[in-house]
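Try it yourself: sequence plus xanthosine-5'-monophosphate, in.
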Amino acid sequence: MEDRQQPILVLDFGAQYSQLIARRVREAGVYSEIVPFDISAKEAAARHPQGIILSGGPASVTTPGSPRPDKGIFSLGIPVLGICYGLQVMSVLLGGKVVSPEKKEYGIANIEISPSLLFDGIASGSQVWMSHGDSVSEIPHGFRIIASTSNCPVTAIEDADRKFYGVQFHPEVVHSLDGMKMISNFVLGICNAERNWNMENFIDLEIGKIREKVGDRRVLCGLSGGVDSSVAAVLIHKAIGDQLVCVFVNNGMLRKNEAENVLELFGRNFNMNLQYADAEEDFLSALKGVTEPEAKRKIIGKLFVDTFYKESRKCGDISFLAQGTLYPDVIESKSPTGGPSSTIKSHHNVGGLPEDLKWELLEPLRDLFKDEVRELGRKLGLPEELVDRHPFPGPGLGVRCIGEVTKERLDTLRDIDSIFIEEIRKAGLYNKIWQALADLLPVKSVGVQGDERTYKEVCTLRAVTSEDAMTADWFRMPYDVLERCASRICNEVPGVNRVLFDITSKPPGTIEWE
Ligand code: XMP
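Structure, out:
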């Protein structure tokens, strides 16, 4: 199992697809890590990589100062695959030439291929996704062309002796129909990596690590009932049993019946040491009159930590705070443009913690992607309804109650949310949607109900599809489902008389409204 430490390294040149590359490698059964594009060859070698992938990126190698990897990575004797910008930068560094033709190429293309290990089992004419401005005009010494299209003579190259490969298209995206096969050809066929990345191995290894790190000390875990913290808690519980204390904070901004469900599942079914902290009043009184979204977030974040401290006093000495932080939140990527990398998303859990936190952090899921966490949850015996739950923000309905957060408005929102989710589940659509949410707007409109004029608040319903929440598209919700939701909400929820459906993608919108 030490081989898990021998990753395929993805050098990130700022592509929006870097995470996708790492995920595809893991789908092939091999551990993969994303690292900054300028990692030194020495540092890269110290991670014992089985292969290196150079990602795409927005820059042009023809521009002075554009990002370059340490040339030493080509002398490590490790296979390299360059993708798009990665191909171009490899070509230039190894003696080839790249030009910026006037005609750019975006979209689907079909490649004519020559036999190569990279294309093993793939027929000529295979569909790929192109998105590039520059092209390789002269290939480096020792290379040969292994794929081309009518627009792009150098679509893929190889130096089979040194095991260097480059492709102009993006094998990691679904529109490249044989892309996954190419990635597994590289990882398994060319790098000869062992297929040992799976959740059974992960559980064994991680339980050992947790036991070693924690020893006989005690861990406090904030359990929200969401997928990440639940999976983290169950994994840690498996490792250290009663040395784990879970705290479930009722901040007053939970969904309908959430507290009862969480207490039932974890306290009774999983037999965990679970403390219930009813902090509804603390949260709601601190939020009184506050409408600015960032101010709300800060208050909520601080009160969470205060509540954890307060609860920890009841359970003796605590040394660790456990969190369900995931890999996309911790990728230490360095932006080629000097600004924050597009792959860095400030983590809401981590972001809310004070700098002088008195506990060490325990984050057993920090190597995993969301879909891996779900698989892990299943392996650990968590029920399907929990594992498949849509993401729910830490500050809860607080970020969906636009304007002032009051008990009355939260109750209204809880009812709306529960009708919306119930109708989506009844229509069999829940698992087709990344996230469905309702927001209550601080806007009143005139309506008519039972011959009476009404003047009530407006709510919006939103459902999106997404791979990773970085981008999202609005879900094409069937009209009959929308109609049932609107009709039930207006009839059953006293506080609203108008229902809107949000058809904004991300970008330009975000998923939450705030
Ligand atoms: P946005 O609104 O930025 O959200 O498009 C992206 C994803 O992050 C979730 N989200 C949060 N999750 N704590 C969390 O644990 C938070 O404070 C938070 N804010 C947003 C959001 O629901 C979506 O899945």
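One thing you can check immediately is this: The CA atoms of residues 148 and 154 lie 5 Å apart.
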